Structures are given as structure tokens and as C-alpha cells.
Amino acid sequence: xxxxxxxxxxxxxxxxxxxxxxxxxxxxxxxxxxxxxxxxxxxxxxxxxxxxxxxxxxxxxxxxxxxxxxxxxxxxxxxxxxxxxxxxxxxxxxxxxxxxxxxxxxxxxxxxxxxxxxxxxxxxxxxxxxxxxxxxxxxxxxxxxxxxxxxxxxxxxxxxxxxxxxxxxxxxxxxxxxxxxxxxxxxxxxxxxxxxxxxxxxxxxxxxxxxxxxxxxxxxxxxxxxxxxxxxxxxxxxxxxxxxxxxxxxxxxxxxxxxxxxxxxxxxxxxxxxxxxxxxxxxxxxxxxxxxxxxxxxxxxxx
Length: 303
Hints:
Blueprint: E1 11-17, E2 23-30, H1 35-39, E3 46-50, E4 53-54, H2 60-67, E5 74-80, E6 87-93, E7 102-109, E8 114-121, H3 128-141, E9 146-150, H4 159-167, E10 175-180, E11 188-191, E12 202-206, H5 213-223, E13 227-231, E14 239-245, E15 251-260, H6 282-302
Helix pairs in contact: 4-5
């Protein structure tokens, strides 16, 4: 894990029960524009073989090990596209280079009277925060007065990147996320420690594939009245997991805690309900955030 990404080619594998009572290995997710995605592997594909070796009966962990290898070497993966699709052998070049997960553009709305900065964040990798800051600053220089942060289909990635990105929108002292667990070391309150990079109203787009680090960002901005959420209820993955190496070189993943939103909602298994299903008018967004702030001030006064 220190030398390669999770699989070496940018895919996540999942063991799924098959019709005969055994298990099959399915591609749960891909790094967009990563090596496997570029070569033609798709989400939902079944992995049949790696370098000619049948993977029947092997675990996702074992097959991930087969896929790993030195930077820029090649691995051949045989997949079946979908349940009844064709079988294809695909040669994939392993990559270590983290690609930018940020895509941005300036949109003109309201007959050209309003400039909106649109940012699509594909995943939370080592470049996410740095490239997001660059995008936001450039969009501000171009005149953006509102922002749309698109987290749809973002399955997560580096949790710390999600925390640091949340802080870009929050006031000093705002709660980003709570962590809870039996062990005191996993009982923590993470707060913003600086001033926000932008103070403009924000819409965060979410769907049922918005998960993990994405849900930390969405809830942090929402619960601190910095953004409204638009779309579908999110996936609901809020566990803290540690990987422990075993003497034979294998590893075990243990759940040691979970994430709780600033409004004390348990993310895991529940997801986050958006404020709107369809894209609202910006006047409604401003009104919503203003009312949210008033409610929070009222709660503080009562407290």
C-alpha cells in the first residue's frame, strides 16, 4: 500500500455471491481516467483472470496482490462485461502518477448576469486540495459569484484530503466532523483552523454514489450553513478502518470507529438527505443559507 495505489491499476474489487453458491470478483469502482478505465475496464465487470491465471476461488485481497507491480509495467486482466456481456482480455499499464481529480469551468446564468464557478471533484487523492484551491482562485478571478461543487459518483479516497477541503469553506472553529469509537484515540472533534477561501453561496451536488470522504465534505458544508445539498441521498459510508499486517504478510481490516456529522448524524448506513432534489434558483439558495444561519444563531442564544 505504500508503493502502489490500492490495486496498481486504479480499480476496487468486491466479492459478490454467484448463482452456484460461490463468489465472483466484480469491479466495484474505478479511478476515473485511471489506467484500467482508460484501457476499457468498466464498473460492474467480472474479473476472470490476471496474467492468464484463473482467479476463481481467490479473494479480492489476493487478486489485488496479483494486479500490483512496479510502475509502468503491464498486467493483462480478463473481464466479462456485465452479466451477459462479452469476455475481453485487456492489457493495462500500472501507474503511480496521481492525476488531477479536479475539472472546472465558468458558467453564465440568468441571461449572462450571473457567473457561477462549476467544480467537479472526481475523487480525493493527494492532488485534490491543491488543485481545488487553484480552481477556486481562478474562478474567483474570472468573476464567479456562486459555486457548484459536484461530488456525484465520488466514492471518496483520502479522508484527510476531504477534511482539508472542507476547511477551505468553513470559518475558524467550525466543526468539520466528529469521530467516535470505543478507544479514546478515536474520539475526536475536528475543527476548521483558518478563514474560508470563499464566502460565496455554494451548491453541492450529490447522489447515491457520493460516499465516504465526499460525505464528510457535504455534511461539513451543509451543517455549517455554507452550502445546500442537491440531488439524491448519499451512499452512507462513515466507518474508520485500520489495516493491520499479519505475520504471513497478509492483512486484516478492522473497523475502529465511525464519522458523525457536525449536526450529530451518523453517516454510516444512513447517508445524507439533500435539501433539494432538483437544482434550485440561486435566490432560494441564498434564502436557505440565510435562514440556516439565523437558526444556528438562535440555537446558540438559547444554549
